[in-house]
Amino acid sequence: MAESAPQPQKITKQIFGETYTIVGEASSGYISEVADFVESRLLELAKALPSASKTKLAVLCALNLADELFQMKEVSLKANEIPELEERTKKIISLLEEGIIGDHF
């Protein structure tokens, strides 16, 4: 039996005074949570920049979220390097121990 693809979820959300129909493969709860998060970020920016247009606020919000994403990716990449460095360090220690023990016997 073939696996069926996830059914797209469709919800309607109010974000920053506009109504959007959002379709995605994630659960409707997750989509709603993401939309709420974006709205909260837009509201924060609107408080800080009360004379900015909705378009400018949306672009600034997108830039801020993209910056956070890039920073998280960088942290993730560095975290993925740690096990590799740890493994290489263990190999070097093992080789050193073999060399030191080998010299004494």
Could you please describe the fold and organization of this structure?
- The model has no long low-confidence stretch (mean pLDDT about 85).
- The protein has a two-stranded antiparallel ribbon.
- It has helices at about 30-50, 55-105; strands at about 10-15, 20-25.
- It has a domain at about 10-65.
- It is about 70% helix and about 15% strand.
- It is an alpha+beta fold and about 100 residues long.
- The longest helix is centred in the last third of the chain and has 51 residues, at about 55-105.
- A hairpin with a 2-residue loop joins β1 and β2 (about 20-25).
- The radius of gyration is 25 Å and the shape is elongated.
- InterPro entries: Bac_CellDiv_Activator, Cell_div_ZapA-like, Cell_div_ZapA-like_sf.
- It is found in: Cytoplasm.
Radius of gyration: 25 Å
Number of helices: 2
Q: Which percent range describes the beta-strand content?
A: 5-15%
Question: Order of SSEs, N→C?
Answer: EEHH
Mean pLDDT: 84
Structural class: alpha+beta
Number of strands: 2
End-to-end gap = 64 Å
- What is the helical fraction, as a range of percent? 55-70%
Describe the sheet with the most strands: 2 strands, antiparallel
Unreliable parts: none
Sheet with the most strands: spatial strand order: 1-2
Shape: elongated
What's this model, at a glance?
The protein has a domain of 57 residues. The longest helix has 51 residues.
How does the SSE layout of this entry go?
Blueprint: E1 9-15, E2 18-24, H1 28-48, H2 54-104
Helix pairs in contact: 1-2
What brief labels describe this structure?
alpha+beta; 2 helices
